[in-house]
Amino acid sequence: MILLVGGRLGLVFFLHMSLHMAQRFCYLSSVKTISKGDHMQGERKEVQPEYLYRQMVRARRFEEALASLWRRGLISGELHLGTGEEAIAAGFAAHLEDGDAIALDHRSTPPLVCRGLPLEPIILELIGSEKGLCSGWGGHMHLFSRDFLAASSGIVGSSAPLALGFALANKHLRQGKVAVCFFGEGAMNQGMVLESLNLARVWKLPVIFVCKDNRWAITTRSKNVTAGCLTKRARAYDMPAWKVNGLRVDDVCKTAKRAIERAREGRGPSFVLARCSRIDGHFLGDPLFRIFEEPLEQVKTITPPLIRSAIAKPGAPSGARARALFCISKAIALAGADKLKNFKDPLFISKNLILEEKRLEIEREVFEEIEKAVRTSLEVAGLKR
Amino acid sequence: MILLVGGRLGLVFFLHMSLHMAQRFCYLSSVKTISKGDHMQGERKEVQPEYLYRQMVRARRFEEALASLWRRGLISGELHLGTGEEAIAAGFAAHLEDGDAIALDHRSTPPLVCRGLPLEPIILELIGSEKGLCSGWGGHMHLFSRDFLAASSGIVGSSAPLALGFALANKHLRQGKVAVCFFGEGAMNQGMVLESLNLARVWKLPVIFVCKDNRWAITTRSKNVTAGCLTKRARAYDMPAWKVNGLRVDDVCKTAKRAIERAREGRGPSFVLARCSRIDGHFLGDPLFRIFEEPLEQVKTITPPLIRSAIAKPGAPSGARARALFCISKAIALAGADKLKNFKDPLFISKNLILEEKRLEIEREVFEEIEKAVRTSLEVAGLKR
Amino acid sequence: MRVSFATAIEKAIEHAMAEDERIIIFGEDVHLLRNNLYARFGPERIIPAPISESAFLGAAVGVAMAGLKPIVEIMLVDFIAVAFDALLNQASKVKAFSGGKWNVPVVIRCSCGGGYGDAGQHEQCLWGLISSVPGISVVVPSNPPDAAGLMLSALNAEDPVVYLEHKLLSEYWLDYLGAGGRKNVAFDIPESGASGEIEIPPKNVAIGKASFLREGSDITFISIGVSVHRCLEASKALEREDASSCVLDLRTATPLDKESILEASRTGRVVVVDEDYLSFGLSGEIAAVLSESGYRGAFTRVGNTGVIPYARHLEDRALPSVDSIYEAAKKILGT
Amino acid sequence: MRVSFATAIEKAIEHAMAEDERIIIFGEDVHLLRNNLYARFGPERIIPAPISESAFLGAAVGVAMAGLKPIVEIMLVDFIAVAFDALLNQASKVKAFSGGKWNVPVVIRCSCGGGYGDAGQHEQCLWGLISSVPGISVVVPSNPPDAAGLMLSALNAEDPVVYLEHKLLSEYWLDYLGAGGRKNVAFDIPESGASGEIEIPPKNVAIGKASFLREGSDITFISIGVSVHRCLEASKALEREDASSCVLDLRTATPLDKESILEASRTGRVVVVDEDYLSFGLSGEIAAVLSESGYRGAFTRVGNTGVIPYARHLEDRALPSVDSIYEAAKKILGT
Ligand SMILES: Cc1ncc(C[n+]2csc(CCOP(=O)(O)OP(=O)(O)O)c2C)c(N)n1
Ligand SMILES: Cc1ncc(C[n+]2csc(CCOP(=O)(O)OP(=O)(O)O)c2C)c(N)n1
Ligand SMILES: [Mg+2]
Ligand SMILES: [Mg+2]
Fold it and tell me: Do C14 and B141 touch (CB under 8 A)?
């Protein structure tokens, strides 16, 4: 009987695994093809699609450059890429100007790149150089630029109160300037974010809460731990809340304009829920992800103790155990899905916003820009390319 | 000019003051007349109006007894009375049984009295006796009864997570038993309460959140610092939220029944917003209140520096100063209102729920019960009556 | 000008706010707690907040980073627990994380301390706990001129300062939370702490500079806050027995004035008196400072070993008192 | 049975959960972090939580009061700041406030520590900060048998225990946060800490009992967590120079094993090595314990003086290392 249960549980697990192993081969088509581009310099104020597309490609290429530095062992600690969030970063940053502030979470590089920060200091910071943006003290979760009023933090939810502070200071010192705050849907269960929604409203602060809903908080499907709908949650604080497809940069850009203008005019805070994706897992080297990348090796280490536990006595009834195993394998199976699907990639989706010729030119230019930034940074840090 | 402004501001202030000085004389009619009663012992399960009324009177008399001990200097620290919340306490406690838990805030005595705790240990605790409920260690903000699974805390909002814990333990150990959580409307801006709403829902815990809306948080009108409507806020977490007139014990009792039964049946958490009043100010000796009780003395110490500040230079423009002064005087003026108005007193309102004869008998009995409890406690503590 | 402890603080803030428009105040009930400032500087600069400490303490960090100079009020220091992330992971880290390029000039004002029977969730000191977070200064004045002077310095500081206002010294806090207008309750209020002379405008008192309240050669009391007054009392008692005491008022818990501590320790008998928790706090740090510097004299400490009880008589036993200090001194004097 | 540090903890919990149905686990991502336990004990006892630390740490207090035995996980101890009220004002206070009539048998499990380049918001130790709250035990095992044994004791304890799991010893944490599967990054992992022999069922290790890892007569290292291994390394280097070292692994930060500390101090030269913040923490408390008890020998300490920097080379300089310990030892030995 025990063996039977064990067997059944194992089956569920492997079913999921193999299903998604199969899907894996649909990969290899999307993002990677974007690599040449068009020379149209986007006008900031009018927000041309070319501009937006360029910013997205810059953000993506930058993340990819970081990933490759990370793989070379030059970046330490957890590196959370913002791949899948580029449309949100580009759409909002497009409307920001001098004096506007941004408060960021652990996926802070795309907004910083789109906001126009020089790239080399960021790269230098991440490779731990004392010539970096923060002299090597901050690293990827703690990037700070006083000039751009931009700050990030690795504590989930802490960007919200920070943004309130920026907004309040702007209200006093720089009328018409706003603060934009980025965080994930997982952060919407963190008390300080909820408190901040209320405080922003009662103090009528020029702040825009941008909730990037990639549906995940590490290995947790956020819908399993989040009650109700997040726009309703925000609206309960008597502020407008918009849902937007955060994979479509044109949609984001429109909503961002509306929210930011509203704040500039002194009409208070608003909330934007932007669905996006998590293309590279929670962080680089995400164990859920690695199961896809090196399936045999991972399954070999994970499965035996798991199956052993699943049949050990005493413990939960077999139904409960089956549910547990199912949940584990489902999480693993789902984790890779965002990487596998073109329709979850904001860059792929935006391709048709501009003419192919221009697109290719932009991509080529950006490729060179990022290449150069990496090259220069490595040189400055005294590392070889 | 400065004098003029000062004068105008002073005027606003005194206008408010005198307005409410006048109202003061409408007082002296309500609560104090209830003092004799009827002998009908309320059946717990059916929740007779007599039972509810008795519990309310018990709670009120108990608070009054505490107030008098406090005035004698026998109770130290802040004493937050729950006068004005008796209908809520009685209405909910009426449905609780062995194994149910209650998590309380700084106004914890009415629910404890209605829940049926022996009174002497509470009194002994509050007068600092080592024979008290908590051996003199807890005091009024930290009353604990393991037998009744009842705990209070002076940190605003902390009753919510505590109640979740009680509810989760009940789910595991005492199926069908619930946890009731009391807190004020001010606590609804505290992150841990908001987090708790979500957590209760996603864990489907048998917990009932009772938000006692007395419209005040110390000297702050909660509506000025609270965005949106609180039932909507709760509903955003996908749980039922009911608004009830917390001054009417029959209404509360009905809603409490519904919410508690729902939780017992395993259908998850719910939220009840119960409007109530704050008859005796934030705590005994509330300075806002004292202005009513010893107006000349208080105004004499408060006004001169206030007026001096209001006209000192440099500072805000005179419009802003006027708004500030107006706000101060309004707070003072409003603070006493709950005490002054019969229609804000749950006991006054409930009078007509039962026959006068019974009512008087209940009141007499309760009077004696509380008298005796105080007498015994003082004796045990070796103090004179 | 002779003023109360609370007035001294108010005068300092009033002076600073008149000079510097960037100073704003926010926190719960500040429209009434700071009614005089509110009436003068208006609702734009004195901003009442909901009971959302983590949001508004976190916001204070952002406000300070973006160019204002906030005084953020956490009513009782005990409540800082609900907003501790803003202190531990934000305010104290920004300067280091930004490579020294961005700083957080915020003043966090909290009342603290016991002695009026409100129990351990409302009477903690926590200067030890807060000092264990590098990057934050913690000041604890014990009399009006220090209260005013340290507030001015805090408002001039570049980095976060936690300003602790002891409730036994601060008349309005003690009245709100302890007396409530009653005449029949008594508190052991140190006279020279509760009122004193200040100049107008008040004189700066440097953060990190201790003050010798009494010179002596037989025994040294090192203390902070209300306890320094208890030490002074105890030293009077000892004087009657021909023991001469040195009393050092640290005034600042972090950064510690190590020089003064070493100077004071020359008696060879050190008693640290700390109303805060005894373990893992100020008294330990002083022991380490002394030991590291080669101090080889006697050392003892008087402090609160656990949760502060509610009942006044239990509380009296828990907090440092003239008696318990005197006892400790006698022991260390070997008499 | 030779196991890794993490496996030792898991074995202890598995054993205890099989014996005692009241043990439940909750925290973020526990369905995958504790996947083996999840598969065995099911979703009723291993409960994933939203990112709501104050709600679920607060709930843990209630759960424990009402009869269950929760292990609540705060992923990284740094995050405890957002839920600090549950620790400071609830968990640690209930027993005292209830007059000893109600207790809170909760185990709070957090990873801690640095050495992999994640910077100061994710690499703190905080055992000093947490120890400054009376009423909570804090354990910090440095090897597999202690890890298992202390977990069993924590699960048997009547009062709150914070259980800190150092990330350099815990393979999965280090892999998640440091390596991410990369082979080209290196960490200074102490062999004898990362794996070792345990019995099944594991043997209890009493809370509050330090362990002598090495006896010696010239100099004493008192330490905890990963740093004890650094001390052992340094003592080997000293041995080559004919200095014999005593190394005491405290294992428990609170309550401190004062007896063992005093015994260890007999060399007359004490070096406290603490990866946590140097000021207002463990090293200070040890200095006070020593000073109070009449210790008059040499004392020095090695610790982290500020925010932990991100860059690996800066971090290496900030955290105690074999080199910095060796230097401190040489200085105190006067050689
Ligand atoms: C207060 C706190 N709790 C937990 C963590 C660990 N953690 C880091 S990222 C993360 C998930 C965040 O989810 P979400 O906000 O949706 O952002 P995403 O990673 O999906 O972009 C968690 C739990 C943390 N950094 N801070
Ligand atoms: C976290 C925290 N912040 C502030 C306080 C101070 N405080 C005590 S009661 C109170 C007002 C609470 O308002 P509400 O929840 O509406 O309860 P009410 O007093 O009106 O019954 C405040 C701010 C506290 N005890 N805890
Ligand atoms: Mg997410
Ligand atoms: Mg209220």
Answer: no
Distance C86 CA to ligand 2 centre (A): 20
C165 shares its domain with C220: no
Task: Flag the least confident range among A327-336, B343-352, C169-178, C193-202.
Answer: A327-336
Query: Which mutation among B63, B88, B156 tests ligand 2's pocket best, with the greatest number of atoms within 8 A of CB?
Result: B156
In a domain, B211, yes or no: yes
Please indicate, yes or no, if residue D47 is contained in any of the structural domains. yes
pLDDT given for residue A26 in this prediction: 35
Instruction: Give the span between the Cα atoms of D116 and D114, in whole angstroms.
Output: 6
Is residue D42 situated within a structural domain? Answer: yes
Residue appearing with tokens 């048997």: D156
In whole numbers, what is the pLDDT of chain C averaged over residues? Answer: 98
Same domain, D180 and D88: yes
For A168-200, b/e burial (b = at least 16 CB within 10 A) is bbbbbebeebbbbbbbbbbbbbbbbbbbbbbbb
**D94 CA to centre of ligand 2 in angstroms:** 20
Q: Is C202 part of any domain?
A: no
Q: Is residue A97 part of a domain?
A: yes
Are D87 and D57 within 8 A, CB to CB? yes
User: Domain of C234: which CATH number?
Assistant: 3.40.50.920
Question: Is residue A165 located within the same domain as residue A294?
Answer: no
- Structural domain including B95 reads 2-275
Q: Which tokens in the block code for residue B369?
A: 């019960």
- Residue among A191, A238, A239 minimizing CB distance to B194: A191
Contacts of C121 by beta carbon, 8 Å cutoff, 6+ apart: B141, B142, B153, B154, B155, C78, D89, D93, D97
Answer yes or no: is pLDDT of D267 > 70. Answer: yes
Asked whether the predicted pLDDT for residue C200 surpasses 50, the reply is yes
Query: Nearest chain C Cα to B218, which residue?
Result: C29
Please report the pLDDT score of residue C101 as a whole number.
98
Residues of chain C contacting residue D92, judged by C-beta atoms under 8 Å apart: 307
Asked whether the predicted pLDDT for residue A129 surpasses 70, the reply is yes
Got the DSSP string for A202-258? HTT--EEEEEEE-SEETTEEHHHH--S-HHHHHHTTTS-EEEEETT-HHHHHHHHHH
Q: Which residues of B touch A229 (CB under 8 A)?
A: 236, 238
Residues B291-315, mean pLDDT to the nearest whole number: 88
Inspect the interface and report whether the beta carbons of B142 and D93 lie closer than 8 Å.
yes
Who wins on pLDDT, C175 or B41? C175
The whole-angstrom separation of Cα A296 and Cα A246 is 35
Q: Residue D306 sits in which domain range?
A: 211-333
Pairing of strands D46-48, D23-27: parallel
Task: Verify that D36 and D172 share a domain, yes or no.
Answer: yes
pLDDT tens track for D111-132:
999 999 999 999 999 999 999 9
Residue C131 lies in a domain: yes
Whether residues C46 and C191 share a domain: the answer is yes
Does the pTM surpass 0.90? The reply is yes
Domains held by chain A: number: 2
Q: Which of D197, D229, D257 is the last residue of a domain?
A: D197
What token pair was written down for A202? Answer: 């009662």
Is residue A376 situated within a structural domain?
A: no
Number of domains forming the structure of chain D: 2
Mean pLDDT for B67-89 is 97
pLDDT band at B40 (very low <50, low <70, confident <90, very high): very low
Chains that touch D (3 or more CB pairs under 8 A): A, B, C
Q: Are residues A297 and A320 in the same domain?
A: yes
**Which amino acids bring their CB within 6 angstroms of ligand 2?**
B 106-107, 154-156, 183-187, 214, 216-218, 278, 282; C 28, 51, 53, 75, 79, 82
Q: What does the block give as tokens for B256?
A: 């409490």
Task: State the complex-level ipTM.
Answer: 0.96
- Counting ligands in written order, the one closest to the CA of B88 is 2
> Which of C148, C171, C197 finishes a domain?
C197
With a cut of 60, say whether residue A1 has pLDDT above it. no
CA pair distance D62, B169, nearest whole angstrom? 8
